[in-house]
Amino acid sequence: MQEEEVGSTPVTTPQPGHTFQVDLRGLVDLLSHHLYSSPRVYLRELMQNAVDAITARRLLDPSAPARITIRTDAGGGIVVEDSGVGLTESDVHTFLATIGRSSKRGADGELDLSAARADFIGQFGIGLLACFVVADEITVVSRSAREPGAPAVEWHGRSDGTYSIRTLPVGSVAQPGTTVTLTPRADGSEWLEPGRVVQLARHFGSLLRYQVEVVDRHGDVVRVNDTPPVWERPYGSPLARREALAAYGRQVFDFNPLDTIDLDIPLVGLKGVAFVLPTPAHPTKRSGNRVHLKGMLLSDQATELVPDWAFFVSCVVDTTGLRPTASREALYEDETLAAVRDAIGERVRQWLTGLAASDLALLRRFLDVHHLAVKALARYDDQLLALLLPWLPFETTDGTVSLDEFARAHPVVLVTQTVEEFRQVAPIAAAAGMGVVNGGYVYDRDLVHQLPLVRPGVTVADLDPETVSAHLDSVDPAAELAAAPFLARARAVADRFDTDVALRSFQPVGVPAMLVDNREARHERRRSELSSKADELWAGILGSLSASTPRAQLILNHLNPLIRKLAEMAGTADPQLSETAIEALYGQALLLSRRPLRPTDHALLNRSFLGLLEFATQAAGPTGPGQEKAQS
Ligand SMILES: Nc1ncnc2c1ncn2[C@@H]1O[C@H](COP(=O)(O)OP(=O)(O)OP(=O)(O)O)[C@@H](O)[C@H]1O
């Protein structure tokens, strides 16, 4: 709009429409710093244009040659030659020199990218600009296969946004096709070095369907692609195929896969292989998947291709139907991708089902490595739960065994809530013939409780330390009475640690004492300890949370010879010795319970150990038994 002054009244006169001007430098800056992750994508874009051009030519003439040659002998730059469909002068103006225009969308050039023609990799009409990230000048010489009589044309584009175009004399370009030459930018030459070019061409182009070669200045030729993909080649036997796939997995991912799973989703033209990781994978550090789009590598970090739970596989796939984002470095998240993810998940699940039915040795090896992943999955997947729960390994009083094996030996399966409780009760429970599963690890308790659904005859019950102590045999009243002085002393000592004392008989005989405690009780004691030390405000708050403070229990084993001896000599022995012995028993039970030690616990352990040493050295002194022995 332009304003004109007419008298004192301003009048606005409409002007003819203007066209946006594009600042190419600004655009290239935008692409290189914000769209692409690295300048290296320039080679991907060039190879992709060459592939698309050959595809377009083959739609006209299926027997047309399909060759892509990258030359690194161009004085610091590179040349990419293809035997593709080529361009006429008018094509050059319309497609090459117009940013955002592509010959690869529908015939009417519609902007609906989802309708971009399935045959081509490109669709956005910005790919060639990526070359300006590494080059100052791009020269395209092209001869059209569509209009064989049209003269060849040379287009010269510069990063300042200007371009020139000229037609070449008839006969100067022998065959239809296109040659693109890049003249490097001062800061882009490293990306055009011959070694780097081979590496990039292989990285992006390993699965391209047409033959790609890199030729250096000595005329040495390097093959870039090795087609057809390893999963599409014919093999003499299933074993040979399996070995070839495993070797490919090693080459791509640098690990020896535990197994390989074929992937085939015709709906999106997807084929490939899922490689099962041979070592445990961390659920939050998901492995990268390599996704090729019509042969071109789109991403080697595509986590979105497989469901979260399947973090124990890494895939290589080639697809025609998934959409790339504009940077062409990731998959566009849409319903198709979600459906593909589900389909791959289903395939992995089928593989697991197959193992359970026909290859138990491999299933065991798999579960040894990935049981955590399967446990995470089985909680939400009834089918898988039914299938795999019996095979999953758990820590139990019989060692680490499958749940099925364990349930066969113990029709009542007891499960603890915490690892700590398991550590406390496991030896005692095992000696008493009880079967206990450590339910303290993530998912385990939930899963064990599902067992009756899968194995109807089995009963599962929660177990806590109090239940164990309630099941221990009580001591007959006469023995309890005889031990009364010792128990009284023991109670006085244990009281200092907020602990009660009981005398019971239990196996194994070798365990003199056990400490029965649980986390809630310990928290409660800790809270009351804090509130006694806290200032008024905090004491009030902590006090209002208080319940009656539960106490731990030190259970002394009446079957144990040491306990019996201590009980017998309680009336006559040095009270100091009895006290130190009780402290030492408490300390040892504390260690057995594997609960975290507080500073006071450490002090107790030290004190009792040193105290006992002192008694021992006194006993071995000049009048002690050691001395007598030496004299005799
Ligand atoms: N080697 C080639 N042979 C023939 N035509 C080409 C060649 N390179 C580019 N073109 C033409 O130039 C157009 C623009 O190319 P450009 O790489 O910028 O975008 P595109 O490939 O269409 O889409 P995308 O941005 O998704 O790569 C193409 O649509 C094609 O018509």
Automatic annotation (TrEMBL):
Question: PANTHER family in the record, alphabetically?
Answer: HEAT SHOCK PROTEIN 90 FAMILY MEMBER
Tell me one Pfam family matched here.
Answer: HATPase_c_3
Native source species: Streptacidiphilus alkalitolerans
Q: Which family does it belong to?
A: Belongs to the heat shock protein 90 family.
NCBIfam families given in the database record: PRK14083.1 (NF010683)
Q: Which InterPro entries match?
A: HATPase_C_sf, Hsp90_fam, Hsp90_N, Ribosomal_Su5_D2-typ_SF
Keyword annotations from UniProtKB, A to Z: ATP-binding, Chaperone, Nucleotide-binding
What is the protein name stated in its UniProt record?
Answer: HSP90 family protein
